[in-house]
């Protein structure tokens, strides 16, 4: 028979995943074998083992492993049988005493209330008795009392004093009656809960079976996986536009509703999966074709029934990143006053996950309350750029580009953005690997602006191949960009031209072109969105043109151009 030893352990470390956690219980004990190669079972009864995923139980020998042999580790349900007849008899005796006390208190209360009623009747009699000698039919003593105002006043004062005392006494006894009733109800409830003469109790324990070869100081970690715990990334991005520095506060929001509080534990956060504020609008894909619209409920404009241009609410992802390269980022300039830097978590990266070991001991209560802990804090140099889509929005948006040099992967999460200590809004962070660049929008700044005006929209009939008649629609827009700042700024302007869905249609951009406008920086993406890059001098104004034409057969009905402005 193996010797069983009860082991006291403490919750020392927790690793939190996106939807569960691994809890590590640390135990240290001195072991001396009573016989050579003694079989010993270490019993861990302290812990919420019932919440554990039973198949995830593990043991890790931290110290003293050379003196033992590990046989097994398992959860076990221990059922104990207790003779509750003595408890039931004690409860019956207690109930008997309480019933007697309850009866005595109620009798006492009855006497006090009856005495109160007698004094009340006397007071009413005294106050309502006539002082007219002809009406008095009492004895001489009573008659003298009734006709003596001084005696009557003394009697009234005496009765009122006793009534007040009896009222206080009544309240005291009523409180005692309530207390006896409560204790009696509790005793009866306990007696009912005892049930039969035997009480069976099941307890979950963790058992580690070992063979002890020599005396040793043994230290081990017992761990298991449990649900009802999670963490999510959260970021505060603070941009100093003058210093061109972004301070990234990389935080983690941890919450748990397990069966136990995590008090002063070493906390690790793992990315392993064992299972729009301040943003400018984005251009949508613009289609034209010779076929009617597919959806019968699309809005149509004009007699030809042309489809409406794409609504501003539909946005394409290409707007979020610019294809034109920017200058290399300079190191951050020193600032006169910088916030205190927080200690950063140590990072361990494997081929499939990243683990952040949070600095210091953390306490997470089991009430599902969000607890924010710091992962890291870093200053990153930024490149500032203005961006606007005047076709959809009159505002100009400032955004900043940075390179992730935190040494950590920036996981998808919520972002609070601040520019020059002003809260801009909330957004989200996309997954960003170390040394990868990312952009963040800093809200509206109309000191740099750009307007768009339709100069002309003209229809021209022409002859095509083999005499086929063609119609050409020419569009010309004039953009006016203004920089009201005292510093030179970079502005990106977005617009688009139609995507052709029929070979009978052709679209050509006539301005800008790389040959005709060699000094103009622009790019076109695969959705025919065009972006211009302008370096605006301080307090300056620049204009530029944008033109394209669409050719299609005259006898065909084209959709997608009507209503275009």
What features would you describe in this structure?
It is a single chain. This protein is an alpha+beta fold. The protein has four domains: 3-81 and 199-226; 85-196, Orthogonal Bundle (Helix Hairpins), CATH 1.10.287; 229-255 and 295-384 and 400-436, no CATH class; 448-553, no CATH class. It is 17% helix and 45% strand. It has three helices and 29 strands. The protein has helices spanning 85-128, 140-146, 149-194, and strands at residues 3-7, 10-16, 21-31, 38-44, 58-63, 68-83, 198-212, 216-226, 229-240, 245-256, 262-270, 287-288, 300-301, 306-307, 346-349, 354-364, 371-388, 396-403, 413-419, 422-429, 437-444, 448-463, 469-483, 489-496, 499-500, 506-511, 521-524, 529-536, 540-553. Strands 9, 10, 17, 18, 19, 20, 21, 24, 27 and 28 form a ten-stranded mixed beta sheet that branches. Helix 1 packs antiparallel against helix 3. The termini are far apart. The relative contact order is 0.14. Keywords: Coiled coil. InterPro entries: CHP02231, DUF4139. Residues 163-190 form a coiled coil. Residues 221-553 form the DUF4139 domain. Residues 291-312 are annotated as: Disordered.
């Amino acid at each position: 028979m193996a010797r069983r030893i009860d082991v006291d352990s403490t919750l020392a470390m927790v690793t939190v995943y996106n939807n569960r956690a691994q809890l590590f219980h640390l135990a240290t004990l001195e072991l001396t074998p009573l016989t050579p190669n003694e079989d010993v079972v270490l019993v861990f009864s302290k812990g919420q083992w019932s919440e554990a995923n039973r198949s995830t139980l593990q043991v890790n020998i931290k110290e003293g492993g050379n003196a033992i042999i590990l046989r097994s580790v398992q959860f076990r349900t221990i059922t104990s049988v207790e003779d509750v007849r003595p408890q039931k008899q004690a409860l019956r005796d207690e109930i008997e005493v309480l019933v007697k006390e309850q009866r005595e208190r109620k009798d006492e209360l009855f006497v006090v209330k009856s005495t109160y009623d007698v004094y009340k009747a006397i007071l009413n009699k005294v106050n309502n008795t006539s002082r007219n000698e002809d009406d008095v039919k009492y004895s001489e003593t009573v008659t003298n009392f009734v006709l003596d105002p001084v005696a009557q006043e003394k009697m009234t004062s005496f009765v009122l004093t006793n009534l007040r005392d009896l009222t206080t006494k009544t309240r005291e006894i009523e409180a005692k009656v309530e207390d006896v009733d409560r204790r009696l109800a509790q005793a009866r409830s306990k007696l009912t809960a005892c049930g039969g003469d035997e009480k069976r109790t099941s307890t979950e324990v963790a058992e580690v079976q070992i063979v002890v070869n020599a005396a040793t100081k043994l230290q081990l970690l017992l761990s298991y996986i449990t649900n009802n715990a999670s963490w999510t990334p959260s970021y505060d991005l603070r941009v100093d536009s003058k210093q061109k520095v972004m301070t990234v506060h990389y935080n983690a929001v941890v919450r748990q509703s397990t069966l136990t509080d995590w008090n002063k534990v070493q906390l690790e956060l793992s990315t392993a999966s064992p299972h729009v504020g301040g943003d400018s609008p984005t251009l949508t894909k613009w289609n034209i074709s010779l076929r009617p619209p597919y959806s019968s409920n699309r809005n149509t404009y004009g007699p030809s029934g042309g489809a409406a241009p794409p609504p501003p609410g539909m946005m394409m992802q290409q707007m979020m990143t610019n294809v034109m390269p920017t200058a290399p980022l300079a190191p951050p300039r020193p600032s006169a006053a910088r916030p205190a830097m927080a200690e950063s978590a140590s990072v361990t990266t494997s081929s499939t996950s990243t683990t952040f070991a949070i600095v210091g001991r953390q306490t997470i209560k089991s009430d599902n309350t969000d607890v924010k802990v710091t992962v890291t804090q870093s200053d990153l140099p930024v490149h500032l750029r203005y961006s606007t889509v005047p076709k959809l929005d009159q505002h100009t948006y400032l955004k900043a580009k940075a390179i992730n040099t935190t040494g950590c992967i920036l996981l998808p999460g919520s972002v609070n953005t601040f520019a020059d200590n002003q809260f801009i809004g909330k957004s989200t962070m996309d997954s960003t690997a170390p040394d990868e660049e990312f952009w963040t929008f800093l809200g509206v700044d109309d000191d740099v602006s750009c307007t768009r005006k339709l100069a002309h929209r003209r229809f021209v009939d022409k002859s095509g191949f083999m005499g086929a008649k063609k119609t050409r629609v020419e569009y010309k827009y004039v953009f006016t960009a203004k920089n009201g700042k005292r510093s030179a700024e970079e502005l990106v302007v977005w617009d688009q031209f139609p995507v052709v869905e029929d070979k009978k249609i052709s679209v050509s951009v006539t301005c800008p072109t790389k040959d005709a406008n060699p000094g103009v920086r622009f790019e076109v993406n695969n959705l025919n969105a065009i972006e211009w890059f302008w370096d605006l001098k301080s307090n300056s104004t620049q204009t530029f043109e944008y033109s394209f034409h669409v050719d299609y057969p005259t006898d065909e009905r084209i959709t997608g151009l009507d209503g275009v402005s």
